[in-house]
Amino acid sequence: MTVGLARARSSLHFVRIAQYRRLYSTRPPSLTLLGKEYPTDSTTNITDAIADKVGRNLYTDPAHPLGILHVLVSSHFHDFRSHVGLPPVVTPAQNFDDLGFPPDHPGRAPTDSYYLNRDAMLRTHTSAHEVETFARGERRWLLAADVYRRDEIDASHYPVFHQMEGARVFGADEAGRAEVEADNARLEHHLARSNIVIEDVPHISATNPRQEAHDPVMAELVAKNLKLSLNSLMLTLFGDRGGVNEGEPLRVRWIEAFFPFTTPSYEVEVFFRGKWLEILGCGVVQQRTLDRARVPDSISWAFGLGLERIAMILFSIPDIRLFWSQDPRFVSQFTAGQISTFKPYSKYPACYKDVSFWLPGSGLHDNDFCDLVRDTVGDLVQDVVLIDYFTHPKTNRRSKCYRINYCSMDRSLSNEEANAVHTQVIANLKDKFGVEIR
Ligand code: PHE
After folding, report:
1. pTM score
2. Which of 232, 241, 247, 260 has the fewest CB atoms within 10 Å distance of its CB?
3. Domain 351-437 is in which class?
4. Which residues does a 6 A CB cutoff place in the pocket of ligand 1?
5. CA dist., res. 309 & res. 163, Å (int)
6. pLDDT tens digits for 98-126?
C-alpha cells in the first residue's frame, strides 16, 4: 500500500516536471510589447503571430479598405471627436469589470482572450475605452482600434480585427431634452426623405428595460436618437450604393439584444445582396459607466461596429486574411475615399492535411490548436476544421483529428512546402502540448 502510494507520487512528480519543462521552455520570464516589458505568468498566452500584428494600425491608412471605411464613418459623424491609435493593452478591469461583465463571463477565459499576464490583456472590444473617453468630458466621440479575440480559423474569422465605437451624451435636464428633441426632428426629417424601410422594436420593453435612474420620457428620447442616428449611418454605408440596391429601399432591422454595459440594448441588421447581415451592437449606456467616468446628470447612447465584416461586403473581399496582405495586387486596387469592387487576382489550390492525436490529460482547446497553427505557418492557413473527436471506450483516452487547409493568398504552394509546414505544426504540437500523434 505504502509502496503503491510512493510509486503513484513519483509518477505524478514526473508528469509535473514534464509539464514544467514544457511551460518553462515556451515561456520566457517577461515579454516586451510596444516598448513595454510585462512579466509573464500562467495566464500569458499571446503568441508571436499576434504580437507581430500589434501596431500595424491598418485602419489609419486612408487607401486601405479599412481606412476608407473608417473615413466614411468618421465623416458621417463629422461633429464627433475622433480618436485613433490608443494602445491595445488594457487591464481586465477596463475590458470587463468596469463594464459590468460578471466574474464568470466566458470572454474572460484565457481560451477566449489574449493575456500578457493576469493584469494586462489585449482589448477584445473598443468598449474597453468607454470610461476614460467619457471621463475626458467629451459629449460626442468616435474611436477606432484593433481588437483581439481567440477564435476558430476560417474565411471570416481572424484573431485581430477592427472596431469603431461611438457615443453621444445629453444632459439629463431641460436643456438636454431640448437638444435631443431638436436632433430627433432633424434626423426624422432626413430619414423621411430617404429610401429606407425600418423594421423596429419598441425602444423600451419589459425584456429590454430602461434604467431606474432615467426619466422615462428622456430614456425614450435618447433610445430614439440612437436609432435615428444609426439608421442614418446605415444609409451612408449601404444606401443607393451605385445601383447596388437598384432603386429598392434599404432594409434595416432592429433586434433586442443584451450587453452588460447598456440597457436598453439592440443589434442592427441590414438586408444587402440578398442576405440579412449583422452590423453592430448598441444601447443606452449603463449609468454605472458614466458614474465611474464622473459625468454627472447625463444620459448617453453608444454603439460598436466591426469594420472587417462591413468592408468585406462593401468591397467584395472574400477572405479576411486579405486585409493584412501587402501584395501590390491587393493594395493597389484601392483608392482613398472610394468604395470599389475587389477583383480577385487568382485562386490558388487548397491543400488539405490532417493531424490525429491523443489529447494530453489536461485536454486541448480548439483555440489553442488554432493559435499554434497560426503561430507556426502564419497566413498560409486558410481554415481549420475539427473532423473527428472521440473517447476510446476502453482506455477513456480522447482523440481529435483536425483538417488544416494550407493555401497562400499570393502564390501557389507546392505539396513539398505544405508537407514541410505541416511537419513543423506536428512537431510544435508535440513539443508544446505533449500530444501523442496517432
Ligand atoms: N462592444 C460590443 C461588442 O463588441 C458592442 C457594443 C458597443 C454594444 C457599445 C453596445 C454598446 O460586441
Report:
1. 0.88
2. 247
3. alpha beta
4. 125, 127, 165, 259, 262, 281-283, 302-304
5. 10
6. 999 999 999 999 999 999 999 999 999 99
